[in-house]
């Protein structure tokens, strides 16, 4: 499963939102702009691997994978809007609101969310009834006012908050961690993972979710749009939370290293007792490798500045 071809998910991402013949051409073009630029697709691959590791059939596992990627992509469309982060580029192309208007971006995000719920329900309906109810509550908690939406609201009002690691990570818990929790925990939950297994998966979702947010913050400070595929240097310009800005680049690297270490301890226990989840080592390795690349960039900048 580690060698799973992501082209499978690229095809599914682009075709799982059927577009009617009579669709307004402007709306259709905005949707196709998003569907034709799916990003690296690490998330749906991971959802699929988790789901099948816990016994879900291939078709519902793929539907769940695409659904969660649609939720994530919709959140990015909203995040990029002028009233939010006012971004210019996403996934290497102009943001949807610039290419097809703010209205087009909002309607496209809603289309993705609507389809995501339909695909999620199709994936859930074949699971045991007890798992269904628990999963729907979990989805609401992650995406609703307790999770993603509250995190986004805190993000928008960051200028009124104290600039501490705790307050900044609280926002990351709402936004980034909520989506990582969906990616890792929901498919295991639907597959009937034990309460103990779910607790361990939830813990590693927190460690890795915060880790990926720190990595994203470091990239925003240290890398260009050409390197990241999205608008850079926006957090400080927009007065938005950035852990690297709050505790410094060195502090952020140390914090991320600590989170990886904590995650390793949980990962060891998961791999010892759970089903075949060796593919999680791949995700952990990618996080470590990306940290190395970003760290080398910071060292190169420091040396250039002292020359």
- Count, helices: 13
Distance between the termini: 47 Å
Oligomer: single chain
What is the CATH class designation of the domain at 1-126?
Answer: Mainly Alpha
- Biggest sheet layout: 2 strands, antiparallel
Question: Mean of the pLDDT scores?
Answer: 88
Strand order of the largest sheet: 1-2
What is the CATH topology descriptor of the domain at 1-126?
Answer: Farnesyl Diphosphate Synthase
Protein structure class: mainly alpha
CATH superfamily of the domain at 1-126: Farnesyl Diphosphate Synthase
Shape estimate: globular
Radius of gyration from the CA trace? 19 Å
Low-confidence stretches: none
E-strand count:
2
**What is the N-to-C succession of helices and strands?**
HHHHEEHHHHHHHHH
CATH architecture of the domain at 1-126: Orthogonal Bundle
Helix content: over 70%
Q: Any key phrases for this structure?
A:
307 residues; globular; mainly alpha; two-stranded antiparallel sheet; 2 strands; 1% strand; Farnesyl Diphosphate Synthase; 13 helices
Short description:
By secondary structure, the protein is mainly α.
Helices, strands, pairings?
Layout: H1 7-15, H2 25-35, H3 42-53, H4 58-80, E1 89-90, E2 93-94, H5 96-124, H6 129-143, H7 148-156, H8 165-190, H9 195-222, H10 225-228, H11 234-237, H12 243-273, H13 279-306
Antiparallel strand pairs: 1-2
Helix pairs in contact: 2-5, 3-4, 3-8, 4-5, 4-8, 6-8, 7-8, 8-9, 9-12, 9-13, 12-13
């Amino acid at each position: 499963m580690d060698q799973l071809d992501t082209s499978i998910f690229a095809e599914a991402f682009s075709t799982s939102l059927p577009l009617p013949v009579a669709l307004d051409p402007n709306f259709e073009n905005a949707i196709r702009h998003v569907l034709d630029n799916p990003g690296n697709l690490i998330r749906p691959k991971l959802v699929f691997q988790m789901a099948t590791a816990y016994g879900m059939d291939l078709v519902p596992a793929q539907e769940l994978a695409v659904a969660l990627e649609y939720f994530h992509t919709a959140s990015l469309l909203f995040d990029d809007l002028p009233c939010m982060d006012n971004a210019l580029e996403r996934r290497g192309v102009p943001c949807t609101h610039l290419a097809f208007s703010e209205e087009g971006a909002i309607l496209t995000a809603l289309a993705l969310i609507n389809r995501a719920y339909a695909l999620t329900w199709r994936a859930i309906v074949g699971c045991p009834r007890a798992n269904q109810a628990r999963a729907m509550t979990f989805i609401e908690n992650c995406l609703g006012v307790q999770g993603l939406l509250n995190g986004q609201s805190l993000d928008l009002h960051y200028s009124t908050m104290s600039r501490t690691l705790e307050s900044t990570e609280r926002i990351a818990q709402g936004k980034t961690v909520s989506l990582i929790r969906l990616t890792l925990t929901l498919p295991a939950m639907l597959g009937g993972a034990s309460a103990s297994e779910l607790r361990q998966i939830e813990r590693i979702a927190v460690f890795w979710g915060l880790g990926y947010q720190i990595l994203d913050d470091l990239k925003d400070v240290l890398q260009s749009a050409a390197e990241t595929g999205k608008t850079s240097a926006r957090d400080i310009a927009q007065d938005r939370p950035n852990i690297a800005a709050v505790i410094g680049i060195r502090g952020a690297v140390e914090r991320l290293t600590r989170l990886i270490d904590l995650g390793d301890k949980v990962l060891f226990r998961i791999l010892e007792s759970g089903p075949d989840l060796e593919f999680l080592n791949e995700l952990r390795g990618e996080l470590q490798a990306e940290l190395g690349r970003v760290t080398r960039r910071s060292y190169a900048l420091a040396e250039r500045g002292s020359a």
